[in-house]
Amino acid sequence: MQNAGGDHHDRGSIPSSAGTDTSVAAELATTNLKDDAAAAIPSSASDLKHPLRDRVLIRSILSRPDGGAALAGQRIRVLGWVKTGREQGKGKFAFLEVNDGSCPANLQVIVDSGKAKLGSLVATGTSVKVEGLLVAPPVGTKQRIELLVEEVLHVGPVDLAQYPIPKTMLSLKFLRDFIHLRPRTNRISAIIRIRDALAFATHSFFHENEFRLIHTPIITTSDCEGAGEMFQVTTMVGEAEKLQKGEVGVAAKPGIPQKDGKIDYAADFFGRQAFLTVSGQLQLETCACAVCDVYTFGPSFRAEHSHTSRHLAEFWMVEPEIVDADIQDAMNWAEAYVKYMSQWLIDKCHDDMELMDDKGCIDRLRMVASTPFERISYTEAVKILEEAVKGGKKFDNKVEWGIDLASEHERFLTENKFQKPVIVYNYPKGTKAFYMRLNDDSKTVAAMDVLVPKVGELIGGSQREERYEVIKERIMEMGLPLKPYEWYLDLRRFGTVKHSGFGLGFERMLLFATGIDNIRDVIPFPRFPGKADL
Amino acid sequence: MQNAGGDHHDRGSIPSSAGTDTSVAAELATTNLKDDAAAAIPSSASDLKHPLRDRVLIRSILSRPDGGAALAGQRIRVLGWVKTGREQGKGKFAFLEVNDGSCPANLQVIVDSGKAKLGSLVATGTSVKVEGLLVAPPVGTKQRIELLVEEVLHVGPVDLAQYPIPKTMLSLKFLRDFIHLRPRTNRISAIIRIRDALAFATHSFFHENEFRLIHTPIITTSDCEGAGEMFQVTTMVGEAEKLQKGEVGVAAKPGIPQKDGKIDYAADFFGRQAFLTVSGQLQLETCACAVCDVYTFGPSFRAEHSHTSRHLAEFWMVEPEIVDADIQDAMNWAEAYVKYMSQWLIDKCHDDMELMDDKGCIDRLRMVASTPFERISYTEAVKILEEAVKGGKKFDNKVEWGIDLASEHERFLTENKFQKPVIVYNYPKGTKAFYMRLNDDSKTVAAMDVLVPKVGELIGGSQREERYEVIKERIMEMGLPLKPYEWYLDLRRFGTVKHSGFGLGFERMLLFATGIDNIRDVIPFPRFPGKADL
């Protein structure tokens, strides 16, 4: 079996380091290290040196345009885990493919039997820290540089009989039972890097555009109406238990159960019922209506018994709130943000993207980064779907004006009809939340959804109703009480401004970018009904 | 009363825009706008123009080295809220100090009575969007540029009789009852910008140093032992309520209360008891032991009935986990990170820092950014404290080897003894968690705390016990069950590596940086016993 990261012919002799080219030789001449001339680190080593690390990241070697070839002759330390290893040359040498998670590629590390007990090194999963010389490999091998070990500094062994993550290809489903070890596999570590890149791209995009990050609350006493079922946060259950166990120092009246069967939330930690947030939007608006453009990037929760490949009980959401923006502006910002993230991945994560099973994912990102998104009104969308039905297309859900578009409808629009991202706007007010701005037709609200191939809805947003009388009317029309929303109404009472915002499901973006099928594989610690490992 | 942002003499005539200097005239000559020569926007306007905004951020005018003077002659739009406003010249003009939250300074905006009903503009809190010409103010005024309005595009009025945030100086304590409006005040909006800057500085620091961001779970079934009381996350309480109300579709067996008085967590959402995280450390280690240096930056929770100015039930924490790092390395990283944030604020938030009541805060940041942190062992720290007691210093808590250092001890060390940040390391093992690495003396563990003036403990960290046999022993020695930690032990069983990490309380860093006294004022939506507004 060919290993992705390296290429080792059966070789019985140590590769020579004499093959260092003239540029390295020139660099060697400029060395300013005094301790050992033979081991001198050329001045370009300053690229590799970090003031707080004595090891070198494998990425900083292998991601160079020359694959690291020009570094031949340098003495370095690396640490990582053995992906594959084998003894060769009748037990004289061990060839190890070592990965440190800094990039998908492995560094080939060669240890001779004088340096360590080779049998303890070759098991997949073994950690090693070694010091050695970077050398040019023999002509004909795939890699451009390899490490000839002079000293083995650390070995963390693995008993292969016990290790649940052998080197054979494992399914993502299988790995979900080992979430503490799956980051050691190629695809999951690539997803970790892609996720990290998208998070930093997000902060970069909003900071370049002068948005302020706001930490909206996780525990909330507000309900962002209609967003979904909520988890309750309490200290009463535990106190009830402690009380039963006869522990002292527990509140005398834990609230559960009272004699009348009701729950007395005044006895709970916050003195009232509290939940995990389903969206930071309403709270975020308080800051937008003070310091203008803001965003939040935090966890969000749904206590829904969904066992699909698209839902999590805990997920991350990016929510910008933009002042002086109408629904068209919100669409412009959403499109710019998705394009920015797509381009970021193309520029910075190409190697990781190539590891994905979905070989079309890079092309999809390129398409999204360069193609204007289609924009159609909800009414137009329904017409297109109705035409499709007339043309013989079958949907499970009925198509008619007024429905909430189902996932199959959304995917038809983006994947079949337009084959690119589609923004649908101006939805029937009956399907949407009270805070969305009523259009002049009094039938629709200024809501928009961004639909992308592979995923369907990636972003949902709206222009917010900034008119005090109108929003008050809408709250009452929907049968909601005014009192819990008084603070929200204050934003319209005092110095109201036009504003819009949207929410991007961060894991949805990851599904879209990587082509991974199941959302449980793009978050490090997935939570869904019946599962919250670790 | 002198207003911070502007300076308007009683003036009865419109200031002239004839004072534009030659450089602006030169720029005007290069204009490439065709619509209206008189209103031509000089080419330097491209600095101000944003492809997705038609308004200009006030910061981009006033934060220029020349205070915006060179922009005179440009036609722009701004949006913001009136800080102070008054009519002058017998009702001919309104002078408005307008703030848009992009910086602490206000833009002086002048509207004549032909453009709007001036009485509706001058109330504090009114929102306005206006278009006009930037002009040089008369000689002798403080500001370098002001806006002469040609068109009023939007007014969001305020009824001052109802508005809870008048322009008088309000105490931070008073403002805590209006968390939805307090971002409109000078100090709270400055704190929002400082908080945003520190968050971005954090991501920048760790990315520059090749750490990967990991989203550790918020809902957890693990207990990061010893970190504190936990909130429980459940859907059973609500279900019990619904059941009582006779709602259909509710789980038949909600678990609370059972007849035997016990709680059946198998009926809960995750099939077991679940909590809000107190630290992402243990989960983060799974990723560190796969892709090396990682960090998490997320919310953390403590269900403790603390009503102090230093504790929150919900707060944000930055936790890096560093592979191949011992306790000394962890100290190096912690010091580098705190210095980086301090320098970042000095460089980028000077104006906001100057708004703080604590006039020493900028000097304190400078000191921290430039002074090496003192490093002393716990044993040395106790000796110093004992000396102080001998010298007459009174502490509420007894000083002797083996105690957990109290806040008063920590602050004495950093504020009195050394007058700079102090790192205390190697604590008695009895005071610390099982995962901290046992030192060779078998009495202490490789833990460290970073203490800073004004706050005390800012960071807590440790080298993690990477030796399988030792950590297993420690878990048992502390009377903890092994089974819940089997996954954690796997990290030591399979390819173990030396690693260290720490946690920085993000709000503590804000207290330290701003000198604000109460932690409830440095988080947008504070949660503490009895309080979870919005």
Automatic annotation (TrEMBL), chains A, B:
Signal peptide extent: none
Presence of the UniProt keyword Cytoplasm in the record: no
Reaction equations catalysed: tRNA(Asn) + L-asparagine + ATP = L-asparaginyl-tRNA(Asn) + AMP + diphosphate + H(+)
Entry keyword Aminoacyl-tRNA synthetase: yes
PROSITE patterns: AA_TRNA_LIGASE_II (PS50862)
Ranges where the Aminoacyl-transfer RNA synthetases class-II family profile domain occurs: 192-524
One Pfam family it belongs to: tRNA-synt_2
GO cellular component, one term: mitochondrion
Comp. bias regions, Basic and acidic residues: 1-12
Gene Ontology MF: a single term: ATP binding
Domain of life assignment: Eukaryota
Alphabetized Gene3D superfamilies for the sequence: Bira Bifunctional Protein, Domain 2 (3.30.930.10), Nucleic acid-binding proteins (2.40.50.140)
Region (Disordered): 1-21
PANTHER family assigned: ASPARAGINE--TRNA LIGASE, CYTOPLASMIC 1-RELATED, ASPARTYL/LYSYL-TRNA SYNTHETASE
Protein's name in the database: asparagine--tRNA ligase
